[in-house]
Design a protein that fits this description.
20% strand; 128 residues; single chain; elongated; alpha+beta; 3 helices; 3-stranded antiparallel β-sheet; two-stranded antiparallel ribbon
């Protein structure tokens, strides 16, 4: 299966979309119009060419660098929540229900030490 390529506008760098009736790529932000030859010249390759060996190795290194994603189920609507390993509190994108992934919280959460107050309650009230 060939990879999906997104082309950026040569003027404003926004995403381009293909317009089948005109056979050209159009920008929805700055309303620029590009034909196949202009994009081939800018990107330096054939738009419908298959991946080269260099592009394939680049894709593999990007996949290795991407973070591990894990999925969980929303307790309210049952939708699948996909997060990386650093997210514990999140919300469901579908029903907006806040969710805490309890498996991420393990062990005891106790303070290492307690910092005492320098002022008593009466001293703080008198200063205020």
């Amino acid at each position: 299966m060939s990879k999906v390529q997104e082309y950026k506008c040569l003027n404003c760098r926004a995403g381009l979309h293909f317009d089948p009736p005109s056979g050209k790529w159009k920008c929805g932000y700055c309303f620029s119009v590009f034909d196949k030859e202009a994009l081939e010249k800018a990107y330096g390759k054939d738009l419908h060419k298959t991946n080269t060996a260099e592009e394939k190795t680049e894709q593999k290194t990007q996949q290795k660098q991407s973070p591990e994603l894990e999925s969980y189920r929303c307790t309210s609507c049952g939708a699948e929540l996909v997060t990386d390993q650093t997210v514990s509190p999140t919300f469901c994108l579908y029903c907006k229900n806040p969710t805490i992934i309890k498996e991420r919280f393990t062990g005891k959460f106790e303070p290492r030490f307690v910092i005492p107050f320098k002022l008593t309650k009466d001293q703080a009230v008198s200063i205020l």
